[in-house]
Amino acid sequence: MKLQYNPRQRWLIGSVLLTTLYLPTAVAEVKLNGFASIRGTSVSSDGGLAPYPGYEEGELSFKTESLFAIQASADLSEGLSATVQLFGEGANDFEVDARWAYFSYQLNDTHRLSAGRFANPIFHQSEYEKVGYAHNFSRLPKAVYIGLDFSTIEGIAVDSQFNIGDYSLQTKVLYGGWSGEVFSAVTNNTVSFGLDNIMSANATLAGDWWQLFGGIFAAEIDGAVIDSTTVFPLAAGGIALATANGATAAQVADFRNRIGWNEKDAFYWFSGFAVDYSNWLVDFEYVSYEVKESTDVLNNSWYLALGHRFDNVVVTVHTEDYAQDPDFGYLNGVTHPVLQATGRGITSAFGQREFDGVGLSVRYDFHPSAAFKADYFKGTDTRATVDDYQLISFGVDLVF
Amino acid sequence: MKNRILVLSTLLTTLSSAMVFAEVAVIVHPSNANALDAATVAKIYLGREKSFADGQSVVPMSLVETAPSSATFNDVVLKKSASQLKAYWSKLVFTGKGTPPKELATEEEMLKLVAGNPSLIGFVDASKVDASVKVAFKF
Q1: A340 is a domain residue
Q2: pTM of the predicted model, to two decimals?
């Protein structure tokens, strides 16, 4: 997906880039960091279609899950810093984007304010989802980390760090917006989409060997395009049939308002826990999200992982479930039977994609800055075009 | 047979000496009167605590990964391997939530910097400590 930058975003990215890269060294210390993944991934499915967008069924690809990033961070002193992260991934032909571009100001020991373009903390690990070295999987479980396209947003955020006795509490609140394209499983294609007035808050409470976390994310959908290209075309036949069978113009207009996504509210929330005790590792995350009062379907997804660390090797088994729970409540009051059936049909189409599976991942820290990983995943997708599928991958995650 | 046991036990003793008796000292500026324990120092080095108890801001300094004191400090105080520590900091660095302590190349450099700045905290092989710094604790 290629994000469309508006002039304001271009100005922001340009100014952060200039600040970060071209400040005289006497003024600012510039730190360069980076990460990369080089991974061979083989996907096969009984139905012939790859289970996830961007993956190629039936072949071993070194492109799909390979990526690199270079991050420059300039410390401007007095708590002010500017950061830019240039990112490219094989799934996008290694086209380089300014993924992050923001200023941060450390208000005091507890709070830090950031403004610009940065990661959207949709779920617990979303902010470092692409940094393979940071976790023990070849890819974070897809049931939760399915690759939502609005992973980078523009806005303002406050990160806070509290110490409560022996525990630490990290929180984040942010306000922002996003525009770009999202993948539609109905059309198996991408479509223009936007999120306005994004508000999110999350918290992680941690002890020595455990973490509890949760968060919520709400936004208003800018979905005029997805309505006109996906939702309304799906309803066109039903509306024509209903009109031929006596549906009034008012009933049709009301129906269109109900099924559309534009200006509806989207809600996302996550919760879970992580344990790292005596080299045993347990991770669980449950997420739920939907566009309220529309044809969109409530997603209820989760993963559970159990791992063990053997010196510099970590073996992890996990199970994951991506489930959708159609709710036809938005059609309450639609009296025409054809319109009612049409709405139900569209909701069912949006909810057609479910999958679950189990995976085995091995991580071997063979170098202080590099980890070799191999994994096997076996899953089942409810779409007949995918059906049972398997992924095998091996590769190296680097950080520097 | 006796010789073999003797050689083996000498070897084990030597190895365990090398692993256990490389005593490390956590050091601060001589004017620093704060009481520090391993848990507090761990919070400082993991970016969770940004001030000493008296309110003075704290800047942790580390040694390069290859320094023996570094491995001991990571293992005993931070309870993490070098890889675990790097994964921990990867999460923070690439999300703008923190930066790891600066790594110094030598213990001499560590002593010199800590001796000259009340905000700094560091660690060195205990045998290298001199009067220019104060030892918070050893392990």
Answers
A1: yes
A2: 0.87
